[in-house]
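Researcher: For the annotation table, I need structure tokens for SAM domain-containing protein. Please keep the output clean. Sequence:
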Amino acid sequence: MEPEPITVNKRSKQSVRSSRGGTWGSISRVFARSRHRNKSNSLQETPENYEQFRSWSPLTEEGYAEKLRLLREAGSIPMDRWRASTVLAWLEIALGMSQYGVRCAENIKSGKIGPLHGQVLLELSDLELECGLGLTHPMHRKKIRLAIEEHRNPAMIRYPGIAQLGHTWVCGEWLPDLGLSQYSENFAVNMVDARMLEHLSKKELEKYLAVTRKFHQASIVHGIHLLRIMKYDRQALALRRHQCENVDADPLVWTNQRFIRWARSIDLAEYAENLKDSGVHGGLVVLEPSFNGDTMATALGIPASKNIIRRHLTAELESLVLPARYVIFCQLEELQAETARVVSKHR
């Protein structure tokens, strides 16, 4: 697996080289294969539309405290018992989709639709979501649908913390930590939250989010894998990162910025900044089997002729990454053994 080759301070326009194993095999398993490649410029929203998703602040809206109160009450009430006011508060604050909450309120007031209480929300089809709320954007519709299904079957929730990670966190923290902040605007326009990450398809990644480079796709796949390992627990992830902030250990949770600092610390300051916006982060480096010294050297923009520097980098990278991969391997073996015991017990 290789990122696009780059020269110092200048990115090359050559396409990504792919390999038969590693991520390119894993991506095909994680994502459903699409028969036709989508165009990278196929975003359905304009930069002007992005502003409405980025600039709105609930703190400027009247009745915000009341909406928070309704949401707190809703936490202990099944969705089918929610009142219309609670549904609107949920749309505006919990999902961060204020533009649809306002539109819904206007439609109710005008008589275009009836009161949208919880039971009605649970029964709405995609067409009714589109007509009643103006949800014409497929990704926005998916976001609401996933959130509704979570409330329909709360016992099936695999990651309790996933609902706390909204699209503001994905765009403002998660993508920069992966070294992919250049995609933040696309993700914001599509209002991608953690629930959507968990159910993201390759087609959506390419068509709506304009992530067409295989290396960047791999970075996102392994970034999601890391979130699953951490059970989408933001605090637990932050704690692990804090513990290795000044120690070269636990690279699995390292951010892109932490790898830039690491590159400087091993006397590669000349190349370190080339990792910015490269998609290199701990999940990719540790979990991707084909990621090696040559991969990192290419991401850093170290010329192939610099053999001594590349050998130095490979030695440093292996001493950092191999122990972490061994820990993952042991954990996987333990999980497989436990699964086998459970299966044999129920035979």
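Researcher: And a one-line annotation?
Model: Confidence is low (pLDDT under 50) at residues 5-61.
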